[in-house]
């Protein structure tokens, strides 16, 4: 699906978008109205399998109360476990949750699964009583760039996977560009319910100015409709998404 990939040594962003009429790429919101794709599900599992750390937001956990981070969700758990052990190592990745503490559920399954949980928050944030295995890091600058820098410099997480909504992700594409790879699943159905739209990320024209393809597009007809899957890498100059 994505060409010859190895263990990640940079910052990767994995996301599923809808190609809207006119060329805009709109983030697909998780929910009952989102188009399903087994290939996208596998891509997400593979991206997690190669990461040293996974960066998510408190909003992601609030929006997805049943979200878990287990390789078994990908549909090929044993193959992914073996692949990870050979390419990355046996230790699970860190799961870094960027949050101000609002609505953080100590019992959320994401904090009790395969990935090692870590909460990154502000010095003044009021957190609920968290389980003892959840580490807490307080930083004055609570943003994705600072979290990535801290994960790489302080924890030695060479490969960081970003799983975040458009408001957090867009900032990482502004100069200086903070993304090294983009794993992109695009639903190319003619329509998408408004309830499945999480916000515009960029247009396809903007994407090709910012990143260059590292694999040919893989076209798949899923029961939900047509999808394409492609990996992109840095092409040079960054742009400022609208």
What would you note in describing this structure?
This protein is of the alpha/beta class and 242 residues long. Helix content is 22%, strand content 29%. It is built from six helices and twelve strands. It has helices at residues 38-49, 58-63, 77-87, 144-154, 166-172, 204-210; strands at 11-19, 24-28, 53-57, 94-98, 116-121, 135-138, 160-162, 181-187, 197-203, 211-213, 218-222, 225-234. Strands 1, 2, 3, 4, 5, 6, 7, 8, 9, 10, 11 and 12 form a twelve-stranded mixed sheet that branches. The chain is globular and about 45 Å long. The two termini are 29 Å apart. Mean pLDDT is 90; it is low at 237-242.
Short account of what is shown:
With 242 residues, this protein is α/β, with parallel strands linked by helices. It contains 6 helices and 12 strands.
Q: How many distinct helices?
A: 6
SSE arrangement, N to C: EEHEHHEEEHEHEEHEEE
Indicate the mean pLDDT.
Answer: 90
Uncertain stretches: 237-242
Q: Radius of gyration, Cα only, in angstroms?
A: 17 Å
Question: Which percent band covers the strand fraction?
Answer: 25-35%
Q: How many strands, which pairing sense, and closed or not: the largest β-sheet?
A: 12 strands, mixed
Report how far the terminal alpha carbons are from each other. 29 Å
Helix proportion range: 10-25%
Q: What is the overall silhouette?
A: globular
DSSP strand count? 12
């Amino acid at each position: 699906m994505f060409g010859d990939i190895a263990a990640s040594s940079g910052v990767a962003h994995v996301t599923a978008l809808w190609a809207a009429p006119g060329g805009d790429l709109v983030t697909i919101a998780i929910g009952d109205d989102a188009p399903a794709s087994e290939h996208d599900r596998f891509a997400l599992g593979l991206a997690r399998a190669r990461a040293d750390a996974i960066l998510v937001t408190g909003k992601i956990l609030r929006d997805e109360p049943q979200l878990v981070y287990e390789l078994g969700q990908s549909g090929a758990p044993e193959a992914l476990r073996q692949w990870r052990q050979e390419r990355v190592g046996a230790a699970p990745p860190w799961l870094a949750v960027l949050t101000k503490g609002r609505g953080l559920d100590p019992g959320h399954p994401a904090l009790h699964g395969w990935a090692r949980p870590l909460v990154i928050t502000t010095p003044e944030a009021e957190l609920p009583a968290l389980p003892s295995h959840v580490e807490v890091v307080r930083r004055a600058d609570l943003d994705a760039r600072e979290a990535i820098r801290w994960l790489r410099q302080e924890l030695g997480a060479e490969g960081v996977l970003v799983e975040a909504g458009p408001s957090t992700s867009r900032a990482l594409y502004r100069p200086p560009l903070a993304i090294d790879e983009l794993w992109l699943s695009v639903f190319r159905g003619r329509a998408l319910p408004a309830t499945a739209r999480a916000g515009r990320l960029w247009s396809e024209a903007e994407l090709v100015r910012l990143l260059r393809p590292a694999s040919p597009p893989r076209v798949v007809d899923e029961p939900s409709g047509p999808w394409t899957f492609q990996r992109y890498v840095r092409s040079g100059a960054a742009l400022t998404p609208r």
